[in-house]
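Here is the promised in-class demo. Please do not try to memorize the tokens; focus on the logic of going from shape to residues.
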């Protein structure tokens, strides 16, 4: 249990910065949805969707490669310098090429020619973010969690502060979002470069370059597949037939409006995403440190159980109270958490939360793949997920619109998790208790969709019904955790 306490501690500390950063960034949602109509907000959504794809290509899996090989502290500085010089050269070349191809790139991203300044700022954000990934990975690897948290939170403070200043004080438009992000990314990169400057004393080694590329490059197709799973729905919704958007959402609603609505409501899934990202930040260095332990399989099994025991209540709380959450008023300004003009997309939230829950499974199952250096399988699984995402989106968007896209994301992540789980079990035996955990997820989803019927019983009411079902879910999670962790431990004793 001491190892699990270590994982839990790292999850909280590394995750604290993510929680605070995400929460502060989330303050921009009521601000942006109040300041911009859905069609204008769709520009932000499409631009950041494009950045997701570009980040995968430019970063070349180097973060994961560094975490894998810099565990050897004698070679850490050599690996650090080799990767950083490589990223500096390659990212600069790619950014230059994209700038030269700007007209064609804008067309491919479905952005108008008058957004060229936004595109240039996107390239700046891309360049700075790429050069920060290895220094930040170094902080995670050596467990400098406080410094990591401070730097990340400072980045968000600058970003959020500039958004408010540029839009409220200087009356900037949508371009303020990108100016603020560019400034924040630039400052973060400078800070982490200075903080990790000692590693520049290492040597650039060609032999390490080959090793890190062999490990990292398979993450590019995998990352692109992941980007498709996460972001391609924005582009597909943007290309839907206008007649479909009006049939589903009313006269005058354009595909651009749908993209804006979908992207804003997608933000509610941040609650599950936070849990997953907090866990991932601590999980990757944790399983690398303990991969050679005699009881590694048992530790990894218990970590999976704990993850699901915490994910279940989060899923239930956000799904059950999603309408109450978006209607929360921001004191003093009169905004709601998401402007009411975006509420047409609220029903996508339970599906997206469940999708991110499955992403947490995927992250757990990846431990065996990393430890046994079988990462080449990741791109195959992720591309399978991407194919499912594309196919289901194309099939369901004309019929169900945003709900079709959310369903595609859920189906894709579920299939990817199960396939990786099967493969991971073949390379490293870990008792994940999949049937019982899947039943826990199914029970949670059933509670969400049974709640309206229960609340309609005379004398119960909506709020009481939701609280009762949330407490029921907490009981299920507690029993699940007790059965697979504490009961087994007591039995062994």
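The designed amino acids, position by position:
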């Amino acid at each position: 249990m001491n190892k699990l306490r270590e994982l839990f501690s790292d999850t909280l500390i590394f995750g604290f910065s993510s929680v605070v950063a995400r929460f502060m960034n989330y303050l921009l949602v009521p601000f942006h949805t109040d300041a911009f109509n859905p069609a204008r907000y769709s520009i932000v959504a499409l631009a950041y969707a494009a950045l997701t794809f570009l980040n995968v290509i430019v970063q070349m899996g180097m973060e994961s490669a560094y975490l894998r090989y810099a565990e050897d502290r004698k070679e850490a500085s050599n690996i650090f310098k080799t990767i950083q010089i490589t990223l500096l050269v390659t990212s600069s070349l790619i950014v230059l090429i994209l700038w030269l191809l700007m007209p064609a790139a804008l067309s491919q991203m479905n952005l108008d020619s008058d957004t060229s300044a936004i595109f240039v700022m996107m390239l700046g954000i891309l360049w700075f973010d790429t050069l920060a990934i290895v220094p930040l990975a170094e902080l995670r690897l050596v467990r400098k969690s406080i410094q990591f948290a401070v730097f990340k939170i400072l980045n968000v403070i600058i970003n959020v502060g500039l958004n408010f200043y540029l839009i409220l004080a200087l009356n900037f438009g949508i371009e303020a979002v990108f100016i603020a992000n560019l400034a924040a990314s630039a400052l973060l990169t400078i800070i982490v470069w200075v903080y990790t400057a000692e590693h520049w004393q290492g040597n650039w080694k060609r032999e390490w370059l080959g090793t890190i590329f062999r490990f990292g490059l398979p993450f590019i197709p995998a990352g692109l597949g992941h980007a498709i799973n996460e972001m391609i729905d924005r582009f597909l919704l943007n290309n839907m037939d206008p007649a479909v958007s009006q049939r589903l959402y009313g006269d005058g609603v354009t595909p651009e409006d749908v993209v804006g609505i979908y992207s804003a409501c997608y933000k509610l899934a941040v609650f599950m995403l936070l849990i997953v990202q907090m866990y991932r930040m601590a999980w990757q260095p944790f399983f690398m440190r303990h991969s050679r332990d005699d009881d590694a399989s048992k530790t990894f099994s218990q970590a999976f159980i704990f993850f699901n025991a915490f994910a279940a209540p989060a899923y239930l709380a956000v799904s059950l109270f999603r309408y109450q959450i978006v209607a929360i008023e921001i004191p003093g300004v009169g905004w709601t958490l998401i402007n009411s003009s975006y509420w047409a997309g609220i029903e996508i939230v339970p599906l997206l939360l469940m999708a991110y829950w499955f992403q947490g499974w995927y992250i757990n199952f990846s431990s065996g793949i990393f430890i046994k250096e079988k990462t080449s399988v990741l791109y195959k699984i992720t591309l399978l997920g991407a194919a499912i995402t594309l196919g289901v989106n194309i099939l369901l968007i004309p019929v169900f619109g945003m709900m079709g896209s959310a369903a595609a994301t859920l189906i894709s992540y579920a299939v990817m998790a199960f396939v990786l789980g099967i493969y991971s079990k073949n390379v490293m035996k870990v008792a994940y208790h999949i049937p019982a955990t899947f039943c826990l997820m199914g029970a949670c989803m059933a509670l969400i969709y049974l709640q309206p019927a229960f609340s309609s019983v005379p004398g119960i009411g909506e709020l009481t019904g939701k609280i009762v079902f949330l407490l029921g879910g907490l009981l299920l999670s507690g029993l699940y955790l007790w059965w697979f962790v504490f009961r087994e431990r007591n039995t062994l004793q």
